Amino acid sequence: MAHSDIPNNAHPRRRAGCLGIARDEAGRVLFVRTLYGRGLILPGGAATEGEWFDDAARREFAEETGLHVRLWALIAIDQVAADPGTGSCEGVNFVFDAGEFTEQQKADMRVPSGAVSEIADFEWVHPTEFDTHPDIAEYTARRVAQALDALKYGMWLPLLRHGRPVQPA
C-alpha cells in the first residue's frame, strides 16, 4: 500500500510511551512502584499530542520523582500490542538514557504531591535481579535489559527533530 493510499484520518491510534532509565554507581536501575497494579515500572508515561518524546520523558520523570534529568540518547524502542483486557491501545515505548545518578540525586528523590495517587515509592534493582523480581513484569525486564545492552555497546540513537540533533536538556 502506498503512503498516499492511507487517508490522514485513518491512521491507527497509538500511544507514545516516553521512559527514562537512570542508574546508580552500583549499576542498579531506578524503578517506580505504582499504585495502579502494575508493580515496578520505569519512570515515564505517555506523550501528549504535539509533545516531543524527549520532553515527555523529562516531564514524566520530574512528575514521578521530583527530579529534572538530562536525557542523553534514545536507547530502545519497544512496540507493544493493544491489550483488550485492559483497554490499552497499541503503543510504542521510547526509552531514553537518563544517566547515572549521584548519591545526592538519589537522596533528593521524592514522590511529588501531584503523583501520590499514582506512585508509591522508588526501588533500585540490579540487572541480575530483573528476571526473578516478583514485581517486575517479564516484558519490562526484557525491555530494560535490552536498553542496558544498547548503552553498554554504544548502540544508542541520536535525538533528532526534523533531522537536526537535539542537545541534552
Automatic annotation (TrEMBL):
Superkingdom of origin organism: Bacteria
First and last residue of the signal peptide: none
GO molecular function: hydrolase activity
Organism: Kitasatospora cheerisanensis KCTC 2395
InterPro entries, alphabetized: NUDIX_hydrolase-like_dom_sf (IPR015797), NUDIX_hydrolase_CS (IPR020084), NUDIX_hydrolase_dom (IPR000086)
Keywords recorded for this protein, A-Z: Hydrolase
Cofactor field: Mg(2+)
Pfam families reported in the protein's UniProt record: NUDIX
Protein name per Swiss-Prot or TrEMBL: Nudix hydrolase domain-containing protein
